[in-house]
Design goal:
Blueprint lengths: L2 H12 L4 H22 L16 E6 L5 E5 L5 E3 L13 H12 L4 H8 L3 H21 L5 E10 L28 E9 L4 E8 L4 H4 L11 E4 L6 H6 L3 E4 L13 H17 L7 H13 L5 H13 L19
Parallel strand pairs: 4-7, 7-8
Antiparallel strand pairs: 1-2, 2-3, 4-5, 5-6
Helix pairs in contact: 2-10, 3-5, 3-10, 4-5, 5-9
This protein binds zinc ion.
């Protein structure tokens, strides 16, 4: 159907609506417009040269790439308009980045994205890493509060994609060689706010100690009500944060209030995603963890809406990550 036909149909239906329906429709339209505008409006919040946090930018010609240049009033530094965004330092245009974001959130394999975009799988992999790095910067600032469920998720250590002579490759589906929680298990600490965001971070191998849990303490607000299982390692940090906590036994002791259902269901999702990805190299685990909390946050939305939400999120950060910095940046060390 053409836009004109759509509009005619909408007009004829609109006249038959009740006032509350008209109001709802208009408010939905307005929300669409707000989201569209937010997903497009990026401004550089800190001048990369002089560090001014209230930079005043004016247009200053075009770069060789054709991108608009901006000039900082305080220091006269010229920078491109997409400084710190995904397209910055990238030869791929906005539309390719949009497709990359959609495919990453829908777990489309890198090879397929490369085919549909007509670029190499290596370039797509680099683009995905740049996206995940930006998501990680956002995830690191996430704070959960009020009612929080905490638990750990364990994933088998993976050297996927790496050639290591000293390590015998483990075939898919093969179990860890040691029984129980061994040093082959990556521990992902998880804190899920009921009806809110989640924090997911690989902090150590095997069972976490108090000092491992400390690594996510900035992501937990003070004075929360927290549900945990019997692990005592959590208790020191929760006491420091002035959080009240309830210790739960197995599922049989769960009630409608005292349970770990939200964190458990997130963990089942992680198993599903991990199977689809066929495992993730452990050193990139926190990049993927950041993707998983974002997927969880926007679960149930249409692919295009997720794209607009993610673009809006990214507009609020200036991530200076370049692929060439990858080796020196903080990958998960073990
Ligand atoms: Zn400046």
């Amino acid at each position: 159907m053409s836009d004109t036909e759509d509009l005619e149909k909408i007009t004829s239906i609109y006249s038959t609506l009740y006032p509350y329906q008209k109001e709802k429709l208009l408010s939905d339209l307005e929300n669409c417009m707000i989201l569209n505008n937010a997903s497009r409006s990026y401004c550089i919040k800190v001048c990369p040269k002089c560090g001014s946090k209230t930079p005043n930018w004016t247009r200053g010609g075009r770069a060789n790439s054709g991108k608009q240049m901006l000039v900082c009033h305080s220091c006269n530094h010229r920078t491109v308009v997409d400084y710190g965004q995904l397209t910055y330092y990238s030869q791929q245009d906005r539309s390719k980045w949009d497709q990359l974001i959609k495919d990453t959130f829908q777990q489309v394999p890198i090879q397929k994205t490369a085919e549909s975009l007509g670029i190499s799988t290596y370039t797509v992999w680099r683009m995905r890493m740049k996206l995940l790095h930006a998501l990680e910067a956002i995830a690191n600032e996430t704070v959960v509060s009020d009612e929080v469920e905490m638990d750990e998720k364990y994933l088998l250590n993976s050297h996927k994609g790496e050639k290591r002579d000293e390590i015998k490759p483990r075939h898919r589906g093969e179990k860890a060689s040691k029984r129980g929680l061994s040093s082959e298990q990556v521990c992902l600490l998880t804190a899920v706010q009921r009806q809110g965001d989640a924090v997911l971070k690989a902090t150590n191998m095997a069972s976490p100690k108090s000092e491992d849990i400390e690594k996510i303490q900035k992501n937990l607000s003070g004075n929360c009500l927290v549900w945990i299982d019997g692990k005592t390692a959590y208790q020191r940090i929760l006491n420091q944060k002035n959080c009240e906590f309830r210790v739960l036994g197995d599922h049989k002791t769960y009630t409608s209030v005292d349970h770990l259902n939200n964190v458990n269901s997130f963990h089942s999702k992680i198993d599903e995603w991990n199977r689809k990805y066929r495992g993730v190299a452990t050193k990139y685990i926190n990049r993927y963890a950041a993707l998983l909390v974002t997927i969880r946050k926007y679960a149930g939305l249409a692919a295009d809406e997720v794209l607009l939400k993610v673009r809006t999120m990214l507009n609020n950060v200036s991530d200076f990550f370049r692929i060439c910095d990858m080796k020196t940046s903080d990958l998960f060390a073990y």
